[in-house]
Write a structure and sequence with these properties.
Layout (H helix, E strand, L loop, with lengths): L1 E7 L7 H11 L3 E5 L10 H6 L2 E6 L7 E6 L4 E5 L12 E6 L2 E7 L9 H22 L4 E6 L23 H12 L3 E2 H5 L8 E2 L11 E2 L2 E5 L1 H4 L2 E6 L15 E5 L2
Helix pairs in contact: 3-4
């Protein structure tokens, strides 16, 4: 079995003890991290090596940043960043081969406030992602594109449609761009096992959102047809959101036949 997990850690230095705890307790084969919020030279690779994980990372000072960790095997980098916008300096995309599968770790732009340039950037980024995913699909490799998509795909994926109505995460354009990925042949693993919805991956720090379970689902794992055939289970490590000094996201994971 291969377990691929994703965790928007919301600052790797601030939450390193929580991250190491989660890695040791759940022991994913591959862990994709978002919002590491550190420059490359500040990434704590040695801490992960102590517990058997090899890492590659794409950092940025104070913002964004993604990383791929693998248990006992070094991920082989395929690509960092997305083509199509040379002036885009955000660290949001990292792609590697490990354990015989293509793993893509993404941190998609939030897009708020909308309408405006941030929302326009989000939609352009999603179109660039779609192009890259089409290239990966054309290689016929078993692939997973996992991470913080900053899209609430359907009304069933939020505690309150009304509360989120003006947010970039629920706009028709965001949802349409996400749906296009599914229509291209990618499988939403968590939705596959939770067709009724009601599963959250994010709870804001504000207004007692965690205590009231006012969350929504924005962390997703999309599988290529080759990998979807090997899907055994998928879920959310919800309890980690309730720990001391937790990230505002909970980890998500997929279990795959080897």
């Amino acid at each position: 079995m291969i377990k691929v997990s994703s965790f928007n850690i919301n600052g790797i230095k601030a939450r390193l003890p929580r991250l190491l705890e989660w890695l040791e307790e759940t022991r994913p084969s591959v862990a994709c991290l978002q919002e590491i919020k550190t420059q490359d030279e500040g990434f704590p690779a040695a801490e992960f090596e102590k517990i058997g994980y090899h890492a590659i990372w794409h950092g940025q000072k104070g913002f964004n940043g993604v990383a791929i960790l693998a248990d006992g095997q070094a991920p082989v980098e395929v690509q960092r960043g997305l083509a199509g916008e040379p002036e885009d300096e955000h660290s949001r995309y990292l792609e590697a081969d490990v354990f015989g599968i293509r793993v893509v770790c993404i941190y998609l732009p939030n897009g708020n406030p909308q309408p405006g340039p941030k929302f326009d950037y989000k939609l352009r980024w999603m179109e660039r992602l779609r192009k890259r995913m089409a290239e990966i699909a054309a290689e016929d490799v078993p692939a997973v594109v996992i991470g913080d998509y900053n899209v609430i795909p359907e009304d069933k994926d939020t505690f309150s449609v009304k509360a989120m109505a003006d947010d970039a995460l629920t706009q028709p354009e965001s949802r349409d761009a996400y749906r296009r990925l599914l229509n291209d042949g990618w499988t939403d693993a968590i939705d596959t096992f939770n067709p009724q919805g009601g599963v959250w991956t994010f709870w804001d720090y504000q207004a007692g959102a965690w205590q009231r379970d006012h969350g929504f689902r924005i962390d997703h794992a999309l599988l290529s047809p080759e990998l979807a055939d090997r899907l055994v289970a998928a879920g959310v490590d919800k309890e980690y959101r309730g720990r001391e000094k937790a990230s505002d996201h909970a980890p998500v994971w997929v279990q795959l036949r080897g």
